[in-house]
Amino acid sequence: TAFVTAIGGGTLRDMMLGSYPLVWIGDIYFLYAILAGVLIAYLFFNFLLRLRKTFLLFDTLGISFFTILGVEKALSLGVRPEIAAIMGMFTAIMGGVIRDVLTNETPVLFRKEIYATACLVGAILYLILLNVEISRNLNLVISSVVIIVIRLLAVKFKLTLPGFRRVV
Known about the structure:
Layout: H1 2-17, H2 23-26, H3 28-43, H4 45-49, H5 52-76, H6 81-102, H7 116-129, H8 136-156
């Protein structure tokens, strides 16, 4: 499931945007990095399970990185900024959604947690800052930190989005 988590969002994004070959097929080093991560996760699985806070931190770092990567990829394909923001969020969250479905868990996207929202806010901020006189690297750092802070504060203070009432 670690492999699916790593490639899921980017694969779906590339397919939706018609970008072929898929990033992990077109760049062998990307595949090697994924496989190294999968191997590390496999070897240290039991140890990592005990580190829930560490897992949350790495997951949060991952979604911040993949959000910006997804925005950049979408922009490089010439899509409108609004679509690029959605594709950034999509890239970050869909690997985890696929993983959760495969492991029969309720995907985090379908819970009230602030997860996709943090990614979307960071993606929009990144797009806004592209029009400001700051370096792309500084933009990357600022936007990533915003995603990380929103996510970690939401978890720490148990902030959630409002749910929908079921009408039966």
